[in-house]
Amino acid sequence: MMDLEMVDRIFRVIPDIVFCVKDADRVYRAANPAFAHRLGLVSEEQVIGRRAEELFPQELAAVYQRQDKEVLRRGREFTDRLELITNRDGSLGWYLASKFLLKDEVGVVTGLVSISRDLDTPSVGDLKMAGLRRVVDWVHDHMDEEITVQSLAKIAGMKAGHLERRVKRVFKMSVGQFVRKVRIELAAQLLRDTELGIAEIALRCGYSEQSSLTRQFKSAVGCPPGEFRKRLGVR
After folding, report:
1. What is the C-alpha to C-alpha distance for residues 100 and 85, in angstroms, rounded to an integer?
2. d(C-alpha 72, C-alpha 112), whole Å
3. 10 in Cβ contact with 19 (< 8 Å)
């Protein structure tokens, strides 16, 4: 079992990392101040001893509950999963989430560790400095096309490996994750602001089939596009 006191000391001083530990019953046993801040709580002490369904909106709690069961019961850990959630003020926020199993000395599952990192949007100056402005603009302007690392590297005038490293440094995600993020953001915007059918939205966002959009949207947002639209009250 990890030294929770030491881990708590480490993550307490990292404001952009949300950290928590849950036991095998999904009860929070440790959390850092950033976790409490995301929930709008005064202190992380208000988290301890509770479950996700007591702290998060119903739809988010259901997503976290499913994830926890996958990790705890099936051992399906995941790293840097791109997630889009609705913040307490109603805005949309992107995060990279990871969950890992905790086991005792004899291999019995005792809980899990969850780490989530906010993804801030780089400034125009940052993009220019990194030579990525053309790449970002091109992705946004060609959402309905197939986009590959090789094609973006050509636009950027650099090798694919160099582009991957630069995007990772600036956006904290891979090129593939960045493109997926832009596609899902556009889909969410169209679901919210238009009456377009989901099949048409899929095509506009670069998905050849509606099922592909549904699969990636559900993975990132926690629900399929149709349900997302209903939650927003869009007919």
Report:
1. 21
2. 7
3. no
CA distance 72 to 25: 9
Q: What is the pLDDT of residues 140-199, one digit of tens each?
A: 999 999 999 999 999 988 899 999 998 888 888 899 999 998 999 899 889 988 999 999
Mind listing the domains of the chain with CATH numbers? Answer: 4-118 (3.30.450.20), 124-231 (1.10.10.60)
Phi, psi of 100 (to 5 degrees): -130, 145
CB 209 within 8 A of CB 71: no
In the DSSP assignment, the letter for residue 56 is S
Ordered alpha helix ranges (H), 13-52: 33-39
Q: Which of 179, 196, 185, 203 is nearest to 234 (CA)?
A: 196
Cα 51 from Cα 26, distance rounded (Å): 6
Q: Compute the distance between CA of residue 79 and CA of residue 138 in angstroms, rounded to an integer.
A: 28
What angle (nearest 5°) sits at the alpha carbon of residue 26, between those of residues 51 and 106? 155
Joined together, the tokens standing for residue 18 give 């949300």
